[in-house]
Amino acid sequence: MRLINTGTLELTWFPKTPPPYAILSHTWGPDEATFADFANLSTRATKSGFIKIEQTCEKALKDGFSYLWIDTCCINKESSSELSEAINSMFRWYRDAAICYAYLEDASENIQLPVTSSSSIKHCRWFTRGWTLQELLAPKEIVFFGAKWTAIGRKTDLREILEQITGIPCKILTGDMRLDQTSVANRMNWAAKRETTREEDIAYCLMGIFDVNMPMIYGEGKNAFTRLQDEILKQTQDDSLFAWRASEESASEAPYRGLFASSPKEFASEMTTTPFFTSMAGASTLLGNGRISLSCALYQDGFIGLKCFQGTELSTVVGIQAINTGNNHFVRSNPSQLVLKSHQYPVAFQTVVFDKFVEMREPRLLSDIYQHNEFTLALPPEISLLAVYPKEYAGFQDTMRLPITHLVGKKVAFHMEVDRTISGVDVFQKIGRSDKGTAVLLVLWAEQLSTSSFTFYFDLLAVKAGDADERASII
């Protein structure tokens, strides 16, 4: 960590634990003194931003601190490795500082003290920038200053005003509540109205808030925010990560989406969320190939209940609307809406698959399987495939993929067994059997209408476990 000596205004490198230091939180101007400028005394003196460095050093020295950290000059941004390390360490550096000076240069120097209304400072640019969010949250002690270093007050004293401006609860601001004790969606909401100069930085500036790390790849655009959500999903089972809403304009252009949001803006909401965890549901995980396995409550009306509640009442489940495009693969529909449903027990949780991030005008229905020239059978865990008839298709049990042409003009039977003890759902109740170990034959065949069009037919037959061979032979 590189620090400024507040007495000599020289930069000093500390490879291990640094001495106690003060830290500055501010918004950048057009003429800041950078690391490259700092070594040249005549060059740095011409920078208007150097005055801010001198004044902060004077303040820190007066408060008894021999060292100070400022982002403009303490990071060599010409070194990509140093920049990446600094960005991944920044939340910790602000958290470990003995004191943080928050300089609101556009706050009036004639501000009336004590500050009793948010109107005195809510217009300040500091509250609109992405990087200053972690600089508000991480330090234990923050003192706010206005123009010409007029003291405004401490974070703890201004907590109610800061909550009005930022939407961040007082308990978070004072450190009485940890960041990981509030939901992912709530934290994203704090960043929803903030901006960064570089598109990628809206993701990078949030890493510390979610306690994740990832490499910097400037030029990747909005993929940085997708990677951030990847890392969050690896660290938490908080389904509020998926509780976002697209704008009406965005939803009209792309009415079908994946599970991930495109930016923190899509988390803007007056609603708060509370995640819940249950042994009845598995973990939502990254599958690779741009897909997510989501454990959720799946309803027939297309409602997918996420494992989170509205507010703290624990009575209303937050969910999304989705459509099944085939083979247990879903896309989100009506992405500008979140759906609230009264929470009722018992809830049967299922595992479905979503793309991480897609934006589509029309869903690609996997039921149009002629496009793939093969039939794929996907079974839930409570159903086991025992055999395939005719016997020549026995190998299908290993691949679960069958060329469509093999179904044209020929019936293929799938001998399956249902174990109701896994989910408690009697999927074959209508055919008169509900005991453990129910055996069924799914008979499938196809009619080819044209070179690229097929009609599929199926029949479902209940059989005794020992009669499957005989029944299949006469189909």
Round the mean pLDDT to the nearest integer and report it.
Answer: 87
SS-derived structural category: alpha+beta
- Number of H/I helices: 14
- Give the biggest sheet: 7 strands, mixed
Gyration radius over CA:
30 Å
Strand elements, count: 23
Features:
475 residues; alpha+beta; seven-stranded mixed β-sheet; five-stranded mixed barrel; 14 helices; 23 strands; elongated; HET; HET domain-containing protein; DUF8212
Give the helix/strand layout:
Elements: E1 2-5, E2 11-13, E3 22-25, H1 35-38, H2 41-45, H3 48-62, E4 67-69, H4 71-74, H5 80-96, E5 99-103, H6 131-137, E6 142-145, E7 151-154, H7 159-166, H8 170-173, H9 184-190, H10 201-204, H11 223-235, H12 248-253, E8 256-257, E9 273-275, E10 285-288, E11 291-298, E12 303-310, E13 316-326, E14 329-333, E15 339-342, E16 349-355, E17 359-360, E18 374-376, E19 383-389, H13 396-399, E20 401-403, E21 412-418, E22 438-450, E23 453-463, H14 468-473
Parallel strand pairs: 3-4, 3-5, 5-6, 14-16
Antiparallel strand pairs: 1-2, 1-4, 6-7, 8-14, 8-17, 9-12, 10-11, 11-12, 11-16, 12-13, 13-14, 13-15, 18-20, 19-21, 21-22, 22-23
Summarize the structure.
With 475 residues, this protein is α+β, with helices and mostly antiparallel strands. It is built from 14 helices and 23 strands.
Polypeptide structure, described:
It is a single chain. Mean pLDDT is 87; it is low at 367-371 and 423-434. The chain has a seven-stranded mixed beta sheet, sandwiched between helices. A five-stranded mixed barrel has the order 11-12-13-14-16. The protein is 22% helix and 26% strand. The protein has 475 residues and is α+β, with helices and mostly antiparallel strands. The protein has three domains: 2-177, no CATH class; 242-360, no CATH class; 369-473, no CATH class.
